[in-house]
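To make the argument concrete, we let one protein speak, a sequence paired with a row of structure tokens, as a model reads it:
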Amino acid sequence: MDIQAEKLLLIEKLLRIGDAKILEQVRKLLEQSKNPVVGYDVQGNAITHQDFINKVEEAETQYQAGNYKTIDELDKQSETW
């Protein structure tokens, strides 16, 4: 079945749905596909694609501003742990 036929089949099924909760779930699923979860942080919280892009851009900005530590600095810092 080609993509257009699949779309028409889904439209027909959506038109027959009488349960608002199911329609809400379909809507949320479609919204999530625009910004999918790409990973999780150490606490188990989802990280979306856009969150990841934002964090990378923030890290690049900090690096360009000189806001980082070298390996040597981290080694010295870890000696006090």
